[in-house]
Design brief:
By secondary structure, this protein is of the alpha+beta class. The protein folds into two domains: 144 residues, no CATH class; 121 residues, no CATH class. It contains six helices and 16 strands. The strands form two sheets. An eight-stranded antiparallel beta sheet has the order 4-3-2-1-5-6-7-8, with no helix packed on it. An eight-stranded antiparallel beta sheet has the order 11-10-9-13-14-15-16-12. β9 and β10 form a beta hairpin. The chain is elongated.
């Protein structure tokens, strides 16, 4: 009898030990290699991406013929490099070994259906190719994750900030930029710049005057490199352009197209820009616009170097300006 009790107790201890071991290792199926992909999708096949935050905030990104866009943000284009980079990273995630499988662990690691840091759904057409929850971070560039419908909680090489839910974090902020080689003429209120033989020149320049190359380069870089912070509700923005714009200029392209840039100034630390070929209104930081507004025709004309002037108002003689004398002969 005593032997039977001892044997039963030993068997019970073995079962407990096995259960603990399975909980620690996650009971990972031995027929799945830890090096196998966590998801089985091809990034180029993906057509949609949905990211939900812990408070229910949600971001949707969709692929169109023109590229990635933010349908809930007035159809603004998303950064293709950023979206494609995330999809490549997700497709490269590995199964790894589960760190836990219990419901209690899922709550602790914040990877449940009702408690998570991010819920991510990746689609190929109507097919869901990845559906998972992201929770706490156990270390640098690592997060706990759990696939929807699975018990295993794994650690993957990902950051929560890779999965931002704010649309402006995904917005293509370069959508108003131009390639300088496509630009032919810049028309401002009091001057016009035209590209001739790869160099920008002021038109109607007085005889003997030259275009200040460095200043012109700064202006051209500012025009071609214009970036936005966010996009604005078209209905609200349109009202700002009811009158004369606060600032404007026109870019003529080599293709024959003409692009008009108009800026309005709301009561905020930014300007709103509208380009004639786009329906979107972009928010531009005040500094960028003020840097463009500062240019005048006079500032784009090369100035003669000023000679040193004394207290009497006469040009002072220096070694460079002094007239040659017997005591100061001209150096040959």
């Amino acid at each position: 009898m005593q032997r039977t009790i001892i044997a039963a107790a030993a068997l019970l201890l073995m079962q407990i030990a096995l259960a603990v071991a399975l909980n620690i290792t996650g009971g990972q199926s031995r027929d799945v290699s830890p090096a196998a992909p966590l998801f089985g999708f091809v990034p180029d096949d993906v057509t949609a991406l949905d990211i939900t935050g812990p408070s229910g905030e949600r971001l949707t990104i969709r692929k169109t013929d023109a590229g990635w866009e933010l349908p809930e943000t007035f159809g603004a284009p998303a950064s293709g490099d950023q979206v494609n980079g995330l999809l490549a990273k997700l497709a490269d995630l590995k199964q790894g070994l589960a760190v836990a499988t219990s419901e209690e662990a899922a709550k602790r690691f914040k990877v449940t259906e009702t408690g998570f840091e991010r819920h991510v759904v990746v689609k190929k057409g109507e097919e869901v190719v990845a559906d998972f929850y992201v929770g706490t971070s156990p270390g640098f560039r690592q997060v706990h994750a759990r696939k929807a419908g699975a018990q295993e909680i794994v650690t993957v090489a990902l950051n929560t900030f890779d999965l931002e839910t704010a649309a402006d974090k995904w917005l293509d902020k370069n959508l108003f930029q131009l390639k300088q080689e496509e630009m032919e003429t810049l028309v401002f209120a009091d001057f016009t710049l035209q590209k001739k033989d790869q160099n920008w020149q002021l038109t109607d320049l007085e005889e003997g005057k030259e275009t200040a190359k460095e200043a012109v380069d700064d202006l051209v870089n500012g025009v071609s490199g214009l970036t936005i912070q966010d996009v604005m509700n078209p209905q609200e923005a349109a009202a700002l352009f009811a009158g004369e714009p606060a600032f404007s200029f026109t870019v003529n392209l080599k293709s024959g197209s003409k692009l008009e840039y108009r800026f309005a100034k709301p009561e905020a630390d930014y300007f709103v820009v509208k380009r004639s070929d786009r329906e979107l209104y972009g928010k531009v930081h005040t500094i960028q616009v003020e840097n463009l507004r500062k240019f005048t025709k006079e500032k784009l004309i090369k100035q003669e170097e000023n000679l040193p002037v004394g207290e009497s108002g006469q040009v002072e003689e220096t070694e460079e300006t002094a007239k040659p004398t017997e005591a100061n002969p001209v150096q040959q």
